[in-house]
Specification:
This protein is mainly α. It contains 7 helices and no strands. Helix 2 (32-43) runs antiparallel to helix 3 and helix 5 packs antiparallel against helix 6 (105-116).
């Protein structure tokens, strides 16, 4: 049994598109809290894992802009948990890049190196990740 706080909202495709567009419009209008609230309705719905990963990535970007470092990292972590089981790395790369921009080079390097261990990477992804790892290692010294 789940309680009301764990209730999953059922959402058809048209509702998903409408909700995502409303979140994007709120973001574009500078209404970051509103956009986050709308995105939260998506991640508590029955949308696919990959769409949840993308939604958490979008939330992380907004939280970055708002200066909410821990919230952004938490959103990226949630997104990573949804994309990992499908062999994707988009949110993981965003998190690694954000850590780099924060000056947290050792953590960023660990994230990039962890992504390189994924067996589902394309050659292009491997190349991009290896480049980032080499650049950070060079910067660290």
């Amino acid at each position: 049994m789940s309680d009301a706080s764990e209730r999953v909202e059922l959402m058809n495709y048209e509702e998903y598109v409408d909700t995502a567009q409303r979140a994007g419009q709120a973001y574009e209008a500078g209404q970051h809290e509103e956009a986050l609230a709308i995105f939260r309705t998506l991640v508590t719905s029955d949308i696919s894992d990959l769409d949840k990963a993308t939604t958490y990535r979008n939330m992380g970007v907004i939280e970055e802009e708002m200066g909410r470092e821990q919230d952004a990292l938490s959103s990226y972590d949630r997104g990573v948990s949804y994309e990992r089981m499908h062999g994707r790395i988009s949110v993981g790369e965003m998190k690694a890049s954000y850590l780099y921009r924060l000056g947290r080079l050792a953590e960023s390097l660990r994230e990039y190196e962890g992504l390189l261990l994924r067996p589902s990477l394309t050659e292009e992804e491997k190349n991009r990740l290896r480049h980032n790892v080499a650049a950070i290692r060079h910067e660290i010294g």
